[in-house]
# Entry
Amino acid sequence: MFKRLPEADEATIEFHFDGQAYRAVAGDSLAAALLANGIGQFGRNAADNSPRGPHCMIGNCFDCLVLLADGRTAQACLTPVAAGMRVRPYDPATAGSPE
Amino acid sequence: MNATVDVELAVIGGGPAGLAAATLAAEGGASVLLLDEQASPGGQIYRNIEAVCDRRPAIAAALGDDYRGGLELVRAFRRSGAGYRPRASVWEIAGDGALAVVGDGGAEVLRARRLLVATGAAERPVPVPGWTLPGVMTVGAAQTLLKASGLAAGEAVIAGCGPLVLLFALQSIAVGAPPRAVLLSEGFGDYLRALPHLPRAVGSLDLLAKGWGWLRQLKSSGVEVVTGVSAVAARGGSAVDGVGFITGGGRRDIDAGLLLLHQGLVPNGHLLRAAGCAQEWDPAQACWRTRRNSWGATSRNDIAVAGDCAGIGGALAAAEAGRLSALDALYRLGHIGRAARNGRALPMAAALRRHLRPRPLLEALYRPPAEVLRPTAPDTVVCRCEGVRLAALTELRGLGVPGPNQAKAFSRCGMGPCQGRLCEATVGRLLSDEPPLAGRTPQTYTIRPPARPVTVGQVAALDGLAEPAGEVSGMLDR
# Structure
């Protein structure tokens, strides 16, 4: 899995995923922040409910989808992490609903 | 929110082609705006280059001189006076040239007299069994994480072919996170096929020597390198935990929590196709590309293309192509005369030819294997978004479904959020006639805007967007 190299380890931001607190580096995408914390599954596919995580990291594959606190769907690889951000795994059953 | 910015030249994409073009055009007196999806200039090849070179010297050193060499391009762009809009996605180029853009400030419509599309390339999708499992990523994705966030891909199995496979394996070793194994799909037959292209590439001996050196360096590093690998498959439940494959020695299986796939690059052409720019099939690169002349002019007289989005040529070629397109834009905008354009173009065109010289050799050597272009395992997911497997498409083919757009209606393949980016080439080949790889042109999905996700609320708040460029009457009639 992925590990943060010492030179880049400036984790100062706290954010939440699925109710748990994690640390990230300012400038990380949500995808990088989650992978750096050992989280590989970001949600489930809308069509067949299979587990999914980031694949392409350039905004093309839409497998890194997560849900923001207000229920909006976001591509984790294109969304910067921010202090205090609350994120949930993408779940087709709850997409669109606020926390 | 609906601010309209009028510029002479809008450049879409902040990689080497877009940066070089915007710099030259701004220095030549044009008003220029560069729009890019990322937070900082550089594109995927020079991703996050300013911060890495500034604050992460060990990572910059591991990424190598070719990466650090992009810094001058970014610095020149910053000095050029060109406008810059980071974190902005263009979701449509309308028939009248208006750009629909969504970014941090919501959606807006921008107008430019000329457009240069430089949206670069994406990795060719590699549909193998199990490739939707978390932990199966592309090599480029892992390299992006290294550039953007200083994340190392520990203990990965890297599988595929192409220069990026070798380069990333060496970069991972250099940052202290060597891969568990490197599985190369190329074998003896590929070297034989590449041989006739060697004479033309002799002028690029430095590049060939570099590639050869990478392979030698990797083989002497202690990392297991297996050549002639086929039938790669990921196994696992909620995430990948192993990789199976076939080699000369028979069937093998390696435990792995991370599988990185790569089979070369293909142009990012959806935005151009939706804008009505004519595309053509490139048999050598096994992909679609936008038809253009030597100035990058497309079939639409207000849109030019440059760089890998118009056919894979690499970063150095992309920058030269960007400069050529910018010169032509300056000419068409009335900033320079025809003689000045043609004169200044000569050294750029020569450099572009030099950078493109080794491509036929690389294309022959690193041609994706038939099983990647046209998978055979029935349980392989072809359309990731809708979970459509090969068996379902084979059945549709048997029923006489003639092409991808019809298959879409029957199976939902290509109907998910990626809009067919990851399945259209595979579906096109699966439904085309036998023999599938004999240079026959596969069919594609019809692509319509939006090319990037945008909410109904954002669209509703817009005004000033004209009719789309493509055929949409069927949709409006409903």
